[in-house]
């Protein structure tokens, strides 16, 4: 299965509830919350982080949100560590930062050789045709950007979970 990343759009009150009572995160991850929109970034998460920040794990806020952003929701291991929550203001900052980034921008930053050197997950950069690998990244990014825009427009926060 590998490492997959999911984003959940949550009301600001729901973000506050999670931070105050971290075990509530399990209800969200179990799909028990019908009113929460989920977006599966799947295995493209690390490549998108790299293309946004130029770094395997670091980067400047707010574009480093995939690997660095938010506040840990307690110490409940949801697969690969605790989930992280970002409030509505942080989501708006992310949406604004992503505004000028499109598929062409990502294509200019796409460097399969460097991504392989940096061990960017998933390790497809030297085995897949470059056009296919780029499409994998840009399609996932554009869908994620739409999700973040919708979330910001609603004044919602985001829960980030890697499983």
Essential attributes:
single chain, 163 residues, alpha+beta, Hypothetical protein yfbM fold, 5-stranded antiparallel sheet, 7 helices, 5 strands, globular
Element layout with pairings:
Blueprint: E1 5-10, H1 12-20, H2 25-29, E2 37-42, H3 45-53, E3 71-72, E4 84-86, H4 88-98, H5 103-109, H6 112-117, H7 130-154, E5 157-162
Antiparallel strand pairs: 1-2, 1-5, 3-4, 4-5
How would you describe this structure to a colleague?
The protein is an alpha+beta fold. The protein has a single domain, classed as 3-Layer(aba) Sandwich (Hypothetical protein yfbM fold), CATH 3.40.1760. Helix content is 44%, strand content 14%. It has helices at residues 12-20, 25-29, 45-53, 88-98, 103-109, 112-117, 130-154; strands at 5-10, 37-42, 71-72, 84-86, 157-162. Strands 2-1-5-4-3 form a five-stranded antiparallel sheet. It starts with a strand and ends with a strand. The model has no long low-confidence stretch (mean pLDDT 94).
